[in-house]
Design goal:
single chain, 176 residues, 8 helices, 4 strands, four-stranded mixed sheet, alpha+beta, 2 domains
Length: 176
C-alpha cells in the first residue's frame, strides 16, 4: 500500500473518531506535537528505533503529552495504535497531513512571496490583504529574498504560482 494512502487512512480515522467539538483542540495539540518532534529530531529517531520497546515508546509519548494540556485520550489512543501496529515510521507524514487538514478546516493558507529586495510592512500587509480578498481565507505570509529576480514578485500558495516578476514580463514581450 502506498505510504500516502496509509497516512491518509490513519489521519482520517482519527478525525472521524473525534467529536466536532474536540476537533480543533485535538488538532492544535497534534500540531504542537509536530513542532516538538521537528525541534527535537532525537525524540523522533528514538521512537522509530526498533530496539526500543512499544511500552517505552508509549511511555515517552505519555511524558510528552502530559506536558501539553489538556491531556487528550484521542491522541494517546492514536499514538498507541500507530506504535502497536508498527506505523511509527509514518508519524511525521501523519502529523504533516493533520496540520494541512487543520489549516483547511480553519481556512488558513500559507503563501510565499519571492522578491529581490525586502518588503516594507505596508507592502506585506497589502499583499496579505490582496490574497485574503482573492482567496477568502486567512493568509500566513512568508517573504523570501531572491536576488536572482530582476524586479517584481513571485507568489506561491497551495498549488498556485503567480509570476509578477520583471523577468517573466520581458519573456512575454520577447514572444510577441
Amino acid at each position: 500500500m502506498d505510504n500516502r494512502m496509509v497516512i491518509a487512512r490513519y489521519v482520517q480515522s482519527l478525525i472521524d473518531a473525534i467529536q466536532e467539538k474536540d476537533l480543533d483542540v485535538t488538532l492544535v495539540i497534534l500540531i504542537h506535537l509536530k513542532k516538538i518532534f521537528d525541534d527535537n529530531k532525537k525524540i523522533y529517531l528514538y521512537l522509530k528505533d526498533p530496539r526500543v520497546s512499544d511500552v517505552e515508546k508509549i511511555g515517552m509519548f505519555n511524558e510528552i503529552l502530559i506536558r501539553i494540556q489538556p491531556i487528550n485520550n484521542y491522541i494517546m489512543n492514536f499514538f498507541i495504535l500507530i506504535v502497536t501496529e508498527k506505523r511509527i515510521m509514518y508519524l511525521d507524514g501523519m502529523l504533516t497531513l493533520i496540520e494541512e487538514k487543520y489549516n483547511e478546516l480553519m481556512g488558513i493558507v500559507y503563501a510565499v512571496i519571492h522578491t529581490p529586495f525586502p518588503l516594507s510592512d505596508t507592502n506585506v500587509e497589502a499583499a496579505i490583504a490582496s490574497l485574503e480578498k482573492r482567496l477568502e481565507k486567512k493568509i500566513i505570509l512568508n517573504v523570501k529574498i531572491n536576488k536572482s529576480l530582476i524586479g517584481g514578485i513571485v507568489i506561491t500558495y497551495l498549488d498556485k504560482f503567480i509570476n509578477l516578476s520583471l523577468q517573466s514580463r520581458l519573456e512575454e514581450f520577447r514572444e510577441l
